[in-house]
Write a structure and sequence with these properties.
CATH architecture of the largest domain in chain A: 2-Layer Sandwich
Radius of gyration of chain B: 24 Å
Number of helices of chain A: 4
CATH class of the largest domain in chain A: Alpha Beta
Mean pLDDT of chain A: 91
Structural class of chain B: alpha/beta
CATH superfamily of the largest domain in chain A: ACT domain
Helix content of chain B: 25-40%
Order of helices and strands of chain A: EHEEHEEHEEHEEEE
CATH superfamily of the largest domain in chain B: Thiamin diphosphate (ThDP)-binding fold, Pyr/PP domains
Distance between the termini of chain A: 38 Å
Number of domains of chain A: 2
Mean pLDDT of chain B: 96
Number of helices of chain B: 23
Largest sheet of chain B: 6 strands, parallel
Low-confidence stretches of chain B: none
Structural class of chain A: alpha+beta
Oligomer: heterodimer
Amino acid sequence: MKRTLVALVENKPGVLNRVASLFRRRNFNIDSLTVGRTENPAISRMTIVVEADAEKIRTQLYKLVNVIQVEDVTDLPEVTRDLALIKVRVDSKTRGEVVQLCDIFRAHIVDATPEAVIVEVTGNEDKINSMVELLRPIGILEMVRTGVVTMTRGDHVLSPNGYKMRPSGNGYRTNVL
Amino acid sequence: MKLTGAEIILECLVREGVEIMFGYPGGAILPTYDAMTKYPQLRHVLVRHEQGAAHMADGYARATGKVGVAIATSGPGSTNLVTGIATAMMDSSPIVCITGQVPSTAIGSDAFQEADITGITLPITKHNYLVYDVRELAYTIREAFHIARTGRPGPVLIDIPKDVQNAVTEFVYPEEPIELPGYQPPQYASDEDIAAALRLIEQAERPLILAGHGIVMSGAGREVLEFAERTQTPFALTLLGKGGLPETHPLSLGMMGMHGTGYANLAIQNADLLLAFGMRFDDRVTGNLKTYAPNAKKIHIDIDSSEIHKNVRVDVPIVGDLRAVMTQLLPHVKPMEHKAWLAQIRDWMEDADERDIVHRDVGDRLFAAHVIHDMWKATGGDATVVTDVGQHQMWEAQYYLHERPHTLITSGGLGTMGFGLPAAIGASLGLRQPVWAIVGDGGFQMTMTELGTAMQERVPVHIAIINNGFLGMVRQWQEFFYEERYNATPMLSPDFVKLAEAYGIPARRVTRREEVIPAIEWANSITDCPTLIDFVVEKHDLVYPMVPAGADLHAMIRRPLPSEDSI
């Protein structure tokens, strides 16, 4: 079963490599891994979807010095989003069909030429998968997905605050406030 | 005070309490070697191969409990450290490796002697650094030592480009305590954990302590022994746990696992409670996990949370420092008796005694077990012994009973042949006293180049070669599991006595039992340089008992009884 982990890590060069290397070395299969900044520039946030023993992964991640907090959010109420850009081949007949599908999925056409349109769709993985399946017979030319990002609902938070960057040389050092 | 990066490195080493460094110079680390002339308080030991430097730092660390330091240049200098770093990682040994790197402007250009050593060592270090700015250097070194020695210790590598070593900056030593948001080693258990453990302890009728390296590393020997005596709980040791508890103690069952004592393994399989103290249920200790200790509840105390449930699911997991947790537990532990259980174990012990080779008349043949048993007697069981890897290592573990922590130094997790001699050099230099290196003829030849280092530094390492002319442990597997096809295991060796003499190292050969103790006493009388004894032993002897890899722990191959076999 797929599990979703959210991790707060120090925003430093090489940290993504350390996490990816850990998954390879321990033979954990990554389904999706996304990383980006948080409101605290010292801290990055990862959403990791895996098909493996999430508790083992959590304790292994904690062994990395740059990993601050890891939580398995699979069983918590959450909002999960994936974004896809899908370039579809269209002609005068199929363009309308694509526009209709976009309405149903609350997707947007963000680029249009006589031969092709780019559809932008956001949602959870299932929604995007359905959209892809419906567009496939029309003719998908190119597709890219961001991988999922997850946030738990309500007042349950993984806060990146409480850490600060101490400028030092050309690098930054993260300290507990 | 303005200092160069190279001077900052050495200044920081002095402040970390470093007294000795093991290394090998080269282009990218030359600025640091040049600066060493200004720091005579830091002794540098020139090795013959960088692998030796890493093992020496490791041996030093395991003998003294302090952080060992290895230094190498970029490229091949750094990659030669890799085996030593992986060895230290698997056995949680605190070492700091400092490597030179090509100038930062040349990184990524495939420059001469460039290797991505931080990339290469990423999975075999506890943490590593590539320092691009001289202003980061002091803090990084301080952090590296902190990470190496705290929590579950391990190797840390710092890669320092040549231009960073040459750069000059104002040196300010960071005095404030290291605070890392993602690194807070656990200490104490919760009250609930202690209560849960106590409930299981009070209910147990056949309890058994499994004592691992954590006992030695956290210095919990006294507390665990107090627990064992008060509750009359027998204890078995892992290979790296040896020394953590006194093996001559009546509650001691010796080593457990693949080549452990039969009675330790039978005790595990029949126990109703396992108290796993600072050990990690390695496959060499458990055998088949499906049939492992089937009737036992399990309490697991370890400082590394990732070890909990990793191989064996346990009933009460406790993450913390073993000594800290034992001090929480002990005040609540009541005296107990387990007479029937201990009597059962005594029966198993008698059977093992009957099978033991040291109790048999073997004529004028010399068995490795005799050599090690006699060495144990001749050294009063109090020597620091460093081993290599293979049959001799297991015989050491079976026949040399250790009483004190840090007195057995051996590569357990990685099983690194070639570890013995360099680690013994590091241990002896750290302890400032003689140590014994028990090695096989195979492993010794992997790093015997360090005889040069031992003699140049006049290190009193007494080298005992258990010479059977074979890669004995591999030969043993071929005998048991590959229908005696001895492919690539017979080994030609040089005349080790002449080889030692070429270095000016006093040496002799022993072929008969009665020569063993005099030879050991001879070596012990020499304390200002290495010695070497070539013990020529039975070629075809086997390490018994043996649990085949992956087999049930109770399915041991035992040494035949005297009535069943001539030997």
